[in-house]
Amino acid sequence: MSDPKIIVALDFPGAVPALALAHRLSPELCRLKVGKELFTATGPALLEQLMKSGFEIFLDLKFHDIPNTTAQACKAAASLGVWMINVHALGGRKMLEAAQIAVSNSSKPPKLIAVTLLTSMSRDDVREIGIDTTTEETVSRLAQLAQESGLDGVVCSAMETELLRAQCGNKFCLVTPGIRPALASLDDQSRVMTPEAALKAGSSYLVIGRPITKAADPLRALLEINSQIRGLP
Ligand code: C5P
């Protein structure tokens, strides 16, 4: 099976617009990300419909709780048959290890990745909650913790990709939002990279929302991005 690099973020309030968009795309060209808003509105039924159409799903629910609760949530998410799930690395080693064990015991284990620091957190926000290292140090430390706990990878900003690729080696999965094709609107993203630059810096997969979902022709936008990155690792 092909391994599309683009994960389209289905940031919609309900099943109707999400399915309408998905039906304009193709599972050969992309995977789909379902996050808290859409999943809370629709539940697993939507995932089933998307998977029936052939799409692999990144279920972006960012679990963060005590180890047992997180592990049970991961077990339930894995049983839905999705391709990738995630947790917050700030839940700590015991939580990460419990999540990893729960996933690896499932019959069809999804990839399990961790969010390091939310990119919406400024240096001041991070300091305010008592973390006094630089963003790079914190992200690097949390990625190391995720890797030591047996996770498959992390979500990271394109700006951190090069650092983490060097630190974590070639097999570690780096999933990168904040991607904007050249000339595309930035929307509310500030530090962005083009798809080509992010893959060259070491990203494994690119999360792209509005440049595709809000395009007049989403399939064409997806095909254009895929043609820009063809042949890249
Ligand atoms: O529309 P856009 O391409 O900006 O969407 C990016 C997607 O990636 C959204 O679903 C957003 O929530 C998610 N994301 C992000 N930055 C992070 C983590 C996730 O933009 N640090």
Tell me, briefly, the overall form: globular
How would a crystallographer describe the biggest sheet?
8 strands, parallel, barrel
Detail the poorly predicted runs.
Answer: none
- List each distinct ligand once: cytidine-5'-monophosphate
> How many helices does DSSP assign?
11
CATH class division: Alpha Beta
Report on this model:
This protein has 233 residues and is an alpha/beta fold. Helix 1 links the parallel strand 1 and strand 2 (31-35). Helix 4 runs parallel beside helix 5 and helix 7 crosses helix 8 (158-168). The chain has an eight-stranded parallel barrel, surrounded by seven helices. The protein has helices spanning 15-22, 36-42, 44-52, 67-78, 93-104, 123-128, 135-148, 158-168, 195-201, 210-213, 218-229; strands spanning 6-9, 31-35, 57-63, 84-88, 111-115, 153-155, 173-176, 205-208. The model has no long low-confidence stretch (mean pLDDT 96). It has one domain (6-229): TIM Barrel (Alpha-Beta Barrel). The chain is globular. It binds cytidine-5'-monophosphate (C5P).
